[in-house]
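User: Study the chain.
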Amino acid sequence: MLSPSYSPKEYSLLPEYPGVYKYYDKEGTLIYVGKAKNLKKRVSSYFIKSAGLNLKTRRMVREIKKIEIAIVNSEFDALLLENNLIKKSQPKYNILLKDDKTYPYLLLTKEHFPRIYPTRKVIPSKGTYFGPFASVKAMNNILELIRSLFTIRTCKLDLHPYKIASQKYKVCLEYHLGNCLGPCEGLQGEESYLKDIDQANNILKGNLGIAKGYFKTMMQEAAENLKFELAQRYKEKLELLEKYQAKSLVTSPNISSLDVFTVVTDEKFAFVNYLRIKNGAIILTKTVELRKKLDEPEIELLLTAIVRLRDQFQSDAEEILTNISPEDPIEGFQLTVPKIGDKRKLVELSLKNALYYKKEKALASGRVQDKKNRILLQLQKDLSLKEIPDHIECFDNSNIQGNYPVASMVCFHQGKPAKKEYRHFHIKTVEGPNDFASMTEVVGRRYKRLLSENKPLPKLIVIDGGKGQLSAAMDALKGLGIYGQVPVIGIAKKLEEIYFPEDSLPLHIDKKSESLRLLQRVRDEAHRFAITFHRDVRSKNFIQSSLEQIEGIGASTSEKVLKHFKSFKKLNEAKEEELIQLIGKDKAQKIQRYLNEKSR
C-alpha cells in the first residue's frame, strides 16, 4: 500500500494523528524522515514558522517537493518506525550514528550437541545469538567463563545420532585434556550435554542466579551421595561463577534489568553513552557520536540514540534511566531521571563516560590541530612570513678540528619531525675546519637535488648559527637562482637571536613564546642528528684505519669487514667461521690475531 502523498502546499490537509512524515526532493530522493505526536502540527511548523528556522532547516524546506506520511498508534511506534526508515534509507538531513563497526556475537547453534562460538555474521536460522558485544574482550571473558564451567565441544563435527552410532569419529585432544566428554564417540549422551547448554544459556542471558543455584544443588546432591570429589568440583565452579559476578557487580543486586542513557552536546555533535545493567552488573557499555544536521534539541538526539542502540543491542529492559527527559511522557517509554541512590550513581557513571568520550574526541581532532596551527600562525607572525611555515628544513655542521666533517638536514611538517625526510651529508669539496664553506656546499646540494626532482621547496629554511653561516647558505641559494623564493633565517645559540639575510640587527622572540620553542626544537634536532652521524663516521674511520695497520689487510678488505660488522664490538664477538666466509682464511686469521693482542 502506498503512503498518502501531499505537496508542501497541502500540509494543512494532514491528519492530527501520531505518525512518520517523509520529505522528498524534485528527483524523488528521500531527504528527511521525522516522527510526530501530531502530524499536522509538526509538518506545518516547517512551513508556517520558516523565518524562525535555522539556516540548514530552511535549506531543507526549500528542497521539499513531496510529503508522504504513515499513521501509527502512538508516539513510541512513530519512534520505532522512524528508526527503521532512517536505518534503511539514511536520508541526508537525518541524524546518523557515527559508528560503522560490525559487532561480535556469541552464537548458540541449533544442532545436535549445540556449540557456542563467536561470530560477526547474524544468520537467524543457525541458532540463538547473544549480543552484540561492544568489545571483543567482554565477549571473550564470558566465553572463557562458560568453557571453564562446562564441557561444551569446540569441534565442527556433525554429531547426528546415526553418525555417532556408525563410529564415524574419534575423540580429539580436547577430550584428553578434560575439556570435552567425547559425545562424538557416544561417551556422553545428548540429554546430559544439554543440561550444560541450558546453564550456559542462563549465563549468556545474564541470569547468573539460576546457574549458581544449579551448581549449589548439584554440589549438595553429590555430597549427600558421598561423592566428595565431584562435590568439590561443583564447589570450585560455584566459586568461579561468584568471583565473576563479584568482579562485574557495580551496584545493588536488587537492581534488575535496566538501561542507562546520558547525552552531552557541543555545537556540532552529541555524545551518548549507553550502560546495560542486568542483576546489578554492567554487561555492556558503549558511547556513540551523532552529528547534528538541523540543530536538533538534546532530547531529540537522545531519543534517537536510545531507539537505535536498544535495537542494535537487542535490549528489552522496561526501565530507562537518563540525565534529561522529554517535557511530555512518551507512551511505551519509561524514562526516569533519578535524583538519589544507586540509580543516580549509575546515571553519573554514564555521564562521566560521555564527557570523557567528548573530551577525547576534541583532543584527537580539532583542538590538537588548532594548537599546531596556532603555533605555526604565531611563527608566521613573528617572522613576518607570507605563508604558514608548515614545511621547515634546518641545517647543522659537525666536525672536530676539521676532521670527519659532516652535516645534517632535518625536516618538520606541520610542526612535527618528518624523520623519513632527514638527510646526512659527507662534506666533499671543503678541506680543513671551514663551517661556512661546508654550509654553502650542503645547502647547495640539498636544493639542487630538490629542483632536479621537481619536489616542493620548504616554506622556511633554518640555519644553525649566526650571520656567518646564514651568509654561506644565502650564497648557495643565490647560486641556484632561488634566493628570495624561500625565507631563510639563522638562529644563534648563545642568546637565541634570529638573524635575517642582509639585516645586521637580530630579532629577539619572547623566550616563553611557543614559536621560539618550535624553532629551538628544530635546531636541537638538527644538532642531535649531526652529532650522532659524526660519531658514527668517526668510529667507522677509526675501525677502518686500525684494520689497515694489519699487514696484508688493505682498504678494500677493511671496508668490507666494517660494512658487514658495523663496529669493533660486533667484530670481536664474531665467530672465526663467519670472518673466514667473508674474507678468506688467511686474512681472517690475521684479523683474529690482531683482535686477540688488542684485548690483552
Notes: The first strand starts at residue 5 and ends at 6. The longest helix spans residues 514-548. DSSP finds 19 helices and 19 strands in the chain.
